[in-house]
């Protein structure tokens, strides 16, 4: 279970459980509206369907291609939707002294699962150095922040950019992917 392609299957499960905590056990949207703009009018069920579908597609493409390019895209998606999301829940729970629904699964699932995924990516050569990880992390932070500020349109641009990145990686580094 320590292989990258085995561990990535845990990410959609973690996301589903996290969503359950945010919207079934607690009411994240109500909490969020106390502190942030309402720039996302898509129902939470639609957000779940969209993001879990994209995540499953990224996992599927990685399982088929087993390439660095698809691994980077998957890691970017996990950074933006899980790692930075975990930091968001933890930071703003402390900042506002008000429990952010989603913090429990962010700490117990998102962080450990993504740590194992990243560790295996390094071990298997899918990530070559910390610069690649930091770059993917910065892109994840930027995407998450822009999503919070602008709304869902950010994901369309990100999705398109992932396609460009994939084909660029295949062309520039075909023997090393």
Summary, kept brief:
The chain is mostly helical and 177 residues long. The protein is 79% helix and 0% strand.
Structural domain tally: 1
Q: What structural class is derived from the secondary structure elements?
A: mainly alpha
Number of helices: 8
Let me know the largest β-sheet. none
Description of the structure:
InterPro entries: HXXEE (IPR025671). Keywords: Membrane, Transmembrane, Transmembrane helix. The model has no long low-confidence stretch (mean pLDDT 92). The protein has one domain. It is built from eight helices and no strands. The protein has helices at residues 4-7, 10-25, 28-35, 44-65, 68-95, 103-123, 130-150, 153-172. It is globular, with a radius of gyration of 16 Å. With 177 residues, the protein is mostly helical.
Descriptive key words:
single chain, about 180 residues, mainly alpha, 8 helices, about 0% strand, globular, HXXEE
């Amino acid at each position: 279970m320590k292989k990258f392609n085995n561990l990535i299957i845990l990410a959609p499960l973690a996301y589903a459980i996290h969503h359950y905590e945010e919207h079934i056990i607690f009411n994240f949207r109500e909490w969020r509206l106390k502190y942030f703009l309402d720039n996302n009018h898509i129902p939470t069920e639609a957000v779940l369907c969209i993001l879990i579908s994209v995540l499953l597609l990224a996992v599927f493409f990685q399982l088929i291609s087993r390439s660095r390019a698809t691994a980077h895209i998957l890691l970017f998606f996990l950074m933006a939707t899980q790692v930075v999301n975990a930091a968001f829940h933890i930071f703003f729970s402390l900042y506002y002294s008000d429990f952010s629904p989603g913090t429990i699964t962010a700490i117990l699932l998102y962080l450990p699962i993504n740590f194992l995924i990243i560790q295996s990516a390094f071990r298997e050569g899918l990530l070559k150095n910390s610069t690649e990880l930091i770059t993917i992390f910065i892109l994840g932070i930027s995407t998450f922040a822009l999503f919070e500020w602008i709304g869902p349109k950010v994901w369309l641009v990100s999705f398109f950019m992932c396609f460009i990145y994939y084909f660029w990686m295949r062309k520039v580094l075909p023997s090393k992917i």
